[in-house]
Amino acid sequence: QVQLVESGGGLVQAGGSLQLSCTASGFTFRDYTINWIRRAPGKEREFVASISTSGRVANYADSVKGRFTISRDNDKNTAYLQMNNLKPEDTAVYYCSAFGYWGQGTQVTVSV
Fold first, then answer.
1. % pLDDT > 90, the chain
2. How many Cβ atoms from other residues are within 10 Å of residue 89's Cβ?
């Protein structure tokens, strides 16, 4: 069955960095765009970033542009989200998704 498993979340001080991973199974990973979405407490889900099948095209929300970098390794069936210069407003549960499937999410908490 399709599985997306996020990891790498945690507690970090403002200005710090984290790298999230999304490991996929049950489908042909290289054939699908991968998205990172987040949900902050009390807020709607928010698009963060997406990456094309080849990895050549990435899109970012304005709120993370210049700080976050999305990448993928199709040989490892894994996508990544490198998050630098984290801000308290980046605190959220981060999910990866592909063609309608979602992982369970990983919590990112940024302290002041």
1. 98
2. 11
Distance CA(17)–CA(11), nearest Å, equals: 10
Q: What is the predicted pLDDT for the residue at 48? A: 98
Between the CA atoms of 58, 63, 65 and 66, what dihedral angle is there, to the nearest 10 degrees? -150
pLDDT single digits (tens) 64-92:
999 999 999 999 999 999 999 999 999 99
* pLDDT, average across residues 83-106: 97
CB distance 74 to 56 below 8 Å = no
Task: Give the total residue count for the chain.
Answer: 112
The one-letter amino acid code at 105 reads G
User: Where do we find the tokens 């200005």?
Assistant: 15
Buried b (16+ CB within 10 A) or exposed e, 55-67: eeeeebeeebeee
